[in-house]
Amino acid sequence: MKYAIMSDAHANPAALEKAIKDAKKEKCERFIFLGDVTGYGYDVKGAWELVNDNFDIILLGNHDSVCIGKEKDPLADYIPNYDVDRMQRAELPDDAHDILWEAPYLHKEKGAAFAHGNFSRPDNWGYVFTLDEARQSFFSRPEKLMFCGHTHVARSWEMGKDEMARENVVFKVPATKPEKKSFKLKEGKRYIVNVGSVGYPRNDLCSTYVIWDSEKERVTFRRLPFDFMPYIKALLDKNIDLPMWLSDLLLAATKGNHHTFEGV
Question: From start to end of 171-231, where are the E strands?
């Protein structure tokens, strides 16, 4: 079976719809969403409708948790990154509140595990970004294959029985046209795959998701060019303040200065 695995739509239905159409064109049969429908974007209702209509499994993300008032961290009420989530609370449809309240932090299927962030405590929203963080998650779960999001940076790690984890796939420049990069699962190896963000790109500045072919044991990153100017306009029309770093990245990206983004 071919799975489409997406994360971090962040109220951006245009990018999400593009990715869903791409996944269907790639003949994906089952859709799993790793969390964060809400936050940062301009149309939470539109994004939710796409997620609810197209995904078979919906996990809870940290921004979703804040938006529906479920978040356990008392500091969440004071974190500026969650300002948009609090604004979107009234815009999110009632059925979304109910479904997200019951959404799991962790899902297991076909010998794989799925979470929004790391796997040691999925409800604490830790990142899987560095090698040390990947190792922590490897030692927390027994599955051969684990999928996560949360960092907005697509990459993967590989670890054998008698060896430490190493990076397996890393992207350094954005995609300027739809592209794919895949790898086959090896016998005796385990993998963590961060699927990136479908709706709020950061380092690689393109909409990214992953296809998992469970029969062929192959994982494929799909990277789609991101249309920045309509996105910026939609945010400004909704009176959503753009962080300075995001403004600089997006405006530079429209001029083709992709080389300036490494290490951001």
Answer: 179-184, 189-194, 206-213, 218-225
* Separation between Cα atoms, residue 236 and residue 222, nearest integer Å: 28
Q: Are the C-beta atoms of 243 and 221 separated by less than 8 Å?
A: no
pLDDT category of residue 12 using cuts at 50, 70 and 90: very high
Strand partners, 5: 32, 210
Show the tokens assigned to 106.
Answer: 């962790």
The encoded tokens of residue 219 equal 């994982």
CB-based contacts of 246, cutoff 8 Å, min separation 6: none
The whole-angstrom separation of Cα 228 and Cα 46 is 18
Is the Cβ–Cβ distance between 13 and 52 less than 8 Å?
A: no
Cα dihedral 137, 139, 142, 148, rounded to 10, equals 10
Token pair recorded at residue 67: 């938006």
Confidence (pTM): 0.93
Over residues 194-238, the pLDDT tens digits come to 999 999 988 778 999 999 999 999 999 999 998 888 988 899 899
SS3 193: strand
How far apart (Å, rounded) are the C-alpha atoms in residues 12 and 34?
A: 15
**DSSP annotation of 152:** S
**What's the CA angle centered on 245, arms 240 and 248, to 5 degrees?**
95
Residue (of 44, 35, 22) closest to 70 by Cα position: 35
pLDDT tens, 17-63? 999 999 999 999 999 999 999 999 999 999 999 999 999 999 999 99
